[in-house]
Design brief:
single chain
Length: 36
């Protein structure tokens, strides 16, 4: 997750930093909610 945040925000066309943060949170919640 830290690697995604470490990337420069010079490419908003690909993915906004806000979206990356939301995606990371969703992924963490999914992992906690569904331990395989």
């Amino acid at each position: 997750m830290i690697q995604l945040m470490d990337q420069p925000t010079g490419e908003p066309s690909s993915q906004n930093p806000i979206q990356l943060a939301i995606l990371s949170v969703c992924q963490s919640l999914e992992e906690l909610g569904q331990p395989s």
